[in-house]
Please model this.
Amino acid sequence: MTVTASWISKKSDRCDGDACVRDTRITVWGLVAYRRLGMSDSEIINAVQGLTAADLEAAGEYAAAHAAEIDDAIRANDEGEGGFVE
Model:
Protein backbone atom coordinates (compact mmCIF):
# COMPACT_ATOMS: atom_id res chain seq x y z
CA MET A 1 0.00 0.00 0.00
CA THR A 2 1.37 3.41 -0.91
CA VAL A 3 0.45 6.07 1.63
CA THR A 4 0.07 9.73 0.76
CA ALA A 5 2.58 12.22 2.11
CA SER A 6 -0.19 13.91 4.09
CA TRP A 7 -0.16 10.96 6.51
CA ILE A 8 3.07 12.39 7.93
CA SER A 9 3.00 15.97 9.17
CA LYS A 10 5.51 18.47 10.50
CA LYS A 11 4.53 21.43 12.67
CA SER A 12 6.95 23.83 14.29
CA ASP A 13 5.04 23.79 17.60
CA ARG A 14 4.95 19.99 17.88
CA CYS A 15 7.93 17.74 18.71
CA ASP A 16 10.45 20.40 17.69
CA GLY A 17 9.10 20.32 14.12
CA ASP A 18 9.98 16.64 13.63
CA ALA A 19 7.92 14.52 11.26
CA CYS A 20 5.03 12.85 13.10
CA VAL A 21 2.37 10.31 12.21
CA ARG A 22 -0.92 12.04 11.39
CA ASP A 23 -1.56 14.86 13.86
CA THR A 24 -0.08 12.95 16.80
CA ARG A 25 3.14 13.35 18.74
CA ILE A 26 4.40 9.98 17.47
CA THR A 27 7.65 10.84 15.72
CA VAL A 28 8.87 9.04 12.64
CA TRP A 29 12.40 9.00 14.00
CA GLY A 30 11.17 7.36 17.21
CA LEU A 31 9.53 4.55 15.27
CA VAL A 32 12.67 4.08 13.18
CA ALA A 33 14.73 3.99 16.37
CA TYR A 34 12.52 1.21 17.72
CA ARG A 35 13.10 -0.78 14.54
CA ARG A 36 16.84 -0.25 14.83
CA LEU A 37 16.67 -1.64 18.36
CA GLY A 38 15.27 -4.82 16.85
CA MET A 39 11.60 -4.43 17.70
CA SER A 40 9.13 -6.09 15.34
CA ASP A 41 6.25 -4.14 13.84
CA SER A 42 3.79 -5.86 16.18
CA GLU A 43 5.95 -5.00 19.21
CA ILE A 44 6.10 -1.35 18.14
CA ILE A 45 2.34 -1.20 17.54
CA ASN A 46 1.74 -2.71 20.99
CA ALA A 47 4.21 -0.31 22.62
CA VAL A 48 2.92 2.93 21.08
CA GLN A 49 -0.64 3.78 22.05
CA GLY A 50 -2.83 4.63 19.06
CA LEU A 51 -0.34 3.47 16.41
CA THR A 52 -1.67 1.36 13.54
CA ALA A 53 0.02 -0.83 10.95
CA ALA A 54 -0.82 1.79 8.31
CA ASP A 55 0.85 4.48 10.47
CA LEU A 56 3.97 2.37 10.75
CA GLU A 57 4.01 1.78 7.01
CA ALA A 58 3.65 5.51 6.31
CA ALA A 59 6.48 6.25 8.75
CA GLY A 60 8.68 3.70 7.01
CA GLU A 61 7.98 5.21 3.60
CA TYR A 62 8.73 8.70 4.91
CA ALA A 63 11.92 7.52 6.59
CA ALA A 64 13.13 5.84 3.40
CA ALA A 65 12.57 9.06 1.43
CA HIS A 66 14.13 11.30 4.13
CA ALA A 67 16.91 9.13 5.56
CA ALA A 68 19.31 11.97 6.43
CA GLU A 69 16.58 13.89 8.29
CA ILE A 70 15.65 10.82 10.33
CA ASP A 71 19.30 9.95 11.08
CA ASP A 72 19.91 13.52 12.27
CA ALA A 73 16.85 13.42 14.54
CA ILE A 74 17.92 10.10 16.07
CA ARG A 75 21.44 11.42 16.59
CA ALA A 76 20.10 14.59 18.25
CA ASN A 77 17.95 12.51 20.57
CA ASP A 78 20.88 10.26 21.45
CA GLU A 79 22.87 13.38 22.32
CA GLY A 80 20.04 14.68 24.51
CA GLU A 81 18.83 17.37 22.12
CA GLY A 82 15.69 15.75 20.77
CA GLY A 83 12.11 15.07 21.75
CA PHE A 84 10.36 11.78 22.29
CA VAL A 85 8.26 9.17 20.52
CA GLU A 86 4.85 10.11 21.87
In short: The two ends are 25 Å apart (CA to CA). The CA atoms of residues 26 and 43 lie 15 Å apart.
